[in-house]
TrEMBL record:
Position of the signal peptide: none
Keywords: Isomerase
Its EC number(s): 5.3.1.30
Name of the molecule in the record: 5-deoxy-glucuronate isomerase
Lineage: superkingdom: Bacteria
PANTHER family named in the record: 5-DEOXY-GLUCURONATE ISOMERASE (PTHR39193:SF1)
InterPro entries: Deoxy-glucuronate_isom_IolB, KduI/IolB_isomerase, RmlC-like_jellyroll, RmlC_Cupin_sf
Molecular function terms, GO-annotated: isomerase activity
Length: 270
């Protein structure tokens, strides 16, 4: 199995954890990613320390609070495939976040280095810009949870919905060189969900031009793919809807990427 592929636990741990990847686990410096599946009444809590943290409510409802703020009965969708953006709790460093499940709850905990610049806040569906990207079989829907024009110290967070038979993160691009203004270094995770968990799958390729990294990965519902470097397109077979949650962070909060020149010509058709 690819070292870039992280499978979820078949049964959640006592605290609800099904995926937990630290920067040390991934062999990089910036992005941490966790997924929890909680039952009603169960609580997730985390001291942020020197990290900024964004908790994305993938599905279900919860009460949330930090050291200074609280929000009751947040969450709207019961599945990532419901037609609405997620609720997200953003928490700065030197704070604490706690969520108590009201219904069955799945959350993604996204972490990166923080500087304590911004107050904790709730990002609601109306705060999320929904955009269509690409054309034809390259078209997908982007939910901009933490894009470049929204305040954060390190994190970028996006949800991507790829229709059946379509490609996304395509034409392939990379962001693995600290070479601004041409390109920024950003580590990235892809958390995948498939509309038919029993049968569905998708394909993600991660490769560099020199082929020092060249992997083609079969992903199924709940799998996480690490992208330490290289190009990283995704293909969704016919018959299934594909969702993935992207988390990126690096030494500078700028998203500057380079397209694979072998396929860049496709952009001229858009």
């Amino acid at each position: 199995m690819s070292e870039l592929l992280i499978n979820p636990k078949a049964t959640p741990d006592q605290d609800g954890s099904v995926i937990k990847v630290t920067p040390g686990d991934a062999g990089w410096k910036y992005v941490g990613f966790e997924v929890y599946q909680l039952k009603p009444g169960q609580t997730f809590e985390k001291e942020t320390g020197d990290l900024e943290v964004a908790v994305v409510l993938l599905s279900g409802k919860a009460d949330a609070k930090t050291n200074k703020q609280s929000w009751d009965n947040i969450g709207e969708r019961m599945s990532v495939f419901d037609d609405t953006p997620a609720y997200t709790v953003y928490v700065s460093s030197d704070d604490r976040v706690e969520l108590t499940a009201i219904t069955d709850l799945e959350i993604a905990v996204c972490t990166a280095p923080g500087k304590g610049t911004y107050e904790a806040r709730l990002i609601t569906p109306k705060d999320v810009l929904v955009a269509q990207r690409g054309y034809g079989s390259l078209e997908r829907e982007i939910h901009n949870i933490l894009p470049a024009d929204k305040p954060a110290d390190s994190l970028f967070i996006f949800e991507v919905f790829t229709p059946e038979g379509n490609w996304s993160s395509y034409p392939p691009h990379k962001h693995d060189e600290d070479n601004l203004p041409q390109e920024s270094y950003l580590e990235e995770t892809y958390y995948h969900r498939v509309s038919s968990p029993e049968n569905g799958f998708a394909i993600q390729r991660v490769y560099t031009h020199d082929k020092s990294l060249d992997e083609t990965i079969v992903v199924r519902d709940g799998d996480l793919v690490l992208v330490p470097k290289g190009f990283h397109p995704v293909s969704n077979p016919p018959g299934y809807k594909l969702y993935y949650l992207n988390v990126m962070a690096g030494p500078v909060r700028e998203w500057k990427f380079t397209n694979d020149k072998d396929h860049e010509w496709l952009l001229a058709k858009n």
